[in-house]
Amino acid sequence: MTKGKVYLVGAGPGDPKLITVRGLEALKRAEVVVFDRLAGPQLLNHARPDAEHIYVGKLPDRHTMKQEEINQLLVDLALQGKTVVRLKGGDPTVFGRVGEEAGLLQKNGIIFEIIPGITSAIAVPAYAGIPVTHRDWASSFSVITGHESPDKLDHSIYWDKVTNATGTLVFLMGVAKIGYISEQLIKHGRSSDTPVALVQWGSRAEQRTLVGTLEDIADKVKAANLKPPAVIVVGDVVRQRETLSWIEKKPLFGQRILVTRARSQASDLVSKIDELGGEPYEFPIIEIKLPSSQDKLQAIEAALGRAEEYDWVMLTSVNGVDYFFQWLDRYGVDIRRFHRANFAAVGPKTAEALALRGIRADLLPESYHAESLLESLDSLIGSGETALLPRGDLARAMLPQELRERGVQTVEIDIYETAMTAPRDLWLPEMLANGEIHVITFTSSSTVINLLEALRQLGVTNPAEALQNIEIACIGPVTAKTAEDNGLKVTVVPDKATIDGLVEALVDRRRVLKGE
Ligand code: SAH
């Protein structure tokens, strides 16, 4: 069997966008991804759907896998012919034990690549507004481990030299030793009023920064009960934070926001949350696909075959537009055959999707749901006219029913189906219980129903209760009603039922909660 290949990839400090382009490419190719929690589970969303995920971190019933076991695992997988990505937090060569992993691969004649990552030593201070060097304040920096017993720390660190060798000192894994570290630095000649910062969980929603001096930082860490992981920065550059802190100023900073819509539709919401400083957490629980039953296919073909007869084509989602055109292509129907039809769009995104295909919507209602569409249609559509409604299988019955009552001949076709996806991310229940998810966004009734079901599948007995203390944001009144009917307390519903509206409402809600 041909041997596989192993990529030892730096994942960056937490923000999944801080992986390198090369690292991401390797991840997208991998058949197996070996990861732990510091190297963000969210990055797994980029792996192939059929890729195997192997978690080597701590589990309630298991200790973290020993380094030797991980080394051997990588060798075994490669010997099975697999393309493997080993994701590592930060940069793999900075206290990442990549030497041991690569060493054993080399011994076994397995090809490997080391793909650098952005180390927390630099990135985490940067996210707190602290540059590790500065033209006026520090012309060099050291990265030092704090993870040794005090004796060994003394043994492997030459405090007399390290203390003054560079302008800035960065300690990783040093939180528990902060008292000892500051003592040594003072003892070897750093002034006791030297500024120090601890940045905990940098680039993540939990990012928190504590600033003090060598004199008082240990007490402050104790008082604040600050726990690892944190990067410790010592030196004058810390003062830069007063003017350069940036991410903390963004309106959604500190908020981890669950995005439940299908991955194929989520990018707009995800990137808007990200731009506003929030941390989008993708947990897609629906999937959009083509219907497969013969009956449905025949119904679509027959309905499109009558293109000339329609007075109206009503599109109620972007998916509806996308799939409508896919089916036209599949059955060889030219759009010009709908020459009689007016096109109605439920909202601006649907209208935009139509416009991209060269069709300007004839009707766009005041607010963006089926009731409003119906209202605006009332004076325009008459008894005896014919309307085509290409929709998803879960679309509500209200619109076709009401149209029929008005004497409109209504042809409804399911041109796509919404299916529940099996949850692959097993951490959600624990994250919810730990308060690590701050907001949940629902963009359709099926996202509500399916999230509750997914949580049940993940072992949560009362999902609605598990979501009690979390902000629930729904795109519009229909989704909000479904959420409330299922026992959720909805706190955010925008005036306009669009993604932009939803994001604006999240920002407003944040302002209210912060008392701004
Ligand atoms: N290879 C990693 C470091 C591994 S050692 C890198 O290059 O970043 C683990 C230590 O890194 C932690 O104890 C902490 O000091 C630091 N660290 C990693 N990610 C961090 C984060 N997001 N916030 C704060 N510290 C972090």
Q: How would you explain this protein's 3D organization?
A:
- Belongs to the precorrin methyltransferase family.
- Keywords: Methyltransferase, Porphyrin biosynthesis, S-adenosyl-L-methionine, Transferase.
- InterPro entries: 4pyrrol_Mease, 4pyrrol_Methylase_sf, 4pyrrol_syn_uPrphyn_synt_sf, 4pyrrol_synth_uPrphyn_synth, 4pyrrole_Mease_sub1, 4pyrrole_Mease_sub2, CobA/CysG_C, Siro_Cobalamin_biosynth.
- The chain is of the alpha/beta class.
- The chain folds into four domains: 5-118, Tetrapyrrole methylase, N-terminal domain (Cobalt-precorrin-4 Transmethylase, domain 1, 3-Layer(aba) Sandwich); 122-245, Tetrapyrrole methylase, C-terminal domain (Methyltransferase, Cobalt-precorrin-4 Transmethylase, Domain 2, 2-Layer Sandwich); 256-285 and 421-513, 3-Layer(aba) Sandwich (Rossmann fold), CATH 3.40.50.10090; 289-419, Rossmann fold (3-Layer(aba) Sandwich), CATH 3.40.50.10090.
- Helix content is 36%, strand content 20%.
- The strands form four sheets. It has a five-stranded parallel β-sheet with strand order 3-2-4-1-5, sandwiched between helices. A five-stranded mixed β-sheet has the order 6-7-10-8-9, sandwiched between helices. A five-stranded parallel β-sheet has the order 12-11-18-19-20, with helices on both faces.
- Helix 10 (263-275) links the parallel strand 11 (256-259) and strand 12.
- The protein is elongated.
- The N and C termini lie far apart (64 Å).
